[in-house]
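Appendix B. Chain record.
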Amino acid sequence: MGIFSGVTQASQGANNSYWTPGIYKARVERVTFKEKSFKGTSYIIECEVLEVLQHYDAEDRDGLKFASSRKVGERVTQVMKFDNDKAKQAALGNINNFLTACFQTMALSGGQSTEGIEVTEESVAESYADDQPCAGLELNVHCQGIKTAAGKAFVVTSYGVLEELKKAA
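Structure tokens predicted for this chain:
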């Protein structure tokens, strides 16, 4: 079994994010995978903010500081680490969410059904291949600031198909 075994059944978790609270339209720029680099094994999504659909000002909430929303044109990186079993499960869920949104976007853009779309170990590996199949896709990115069980500020990131693409289907 490879490092991505279990991605098909994984659900999205809240393990890491460089996004700030807000709702965005973003373009995927690049997906990479770094195995056992000096900072550990990571799956990395790089995006450019195309539009801010819902802006949040910087705020102090529940004793925590959350940064204001990103701006149009900013590049944002989400790094999902595989440092331990808990981190791996969260990373697999986040990868599943991201790739499901990518695959649904590809299907709808091509006039195809989204039924039966499944993220597999192979499709995860293909997502960061040299031909970058996800690059250029435009997605909704919903980022919500939360307080973790440890009492720290954290931003949960989820990806989805653009509303206008759903309506056109």
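Further analysis of this model is presented in Appendix C.
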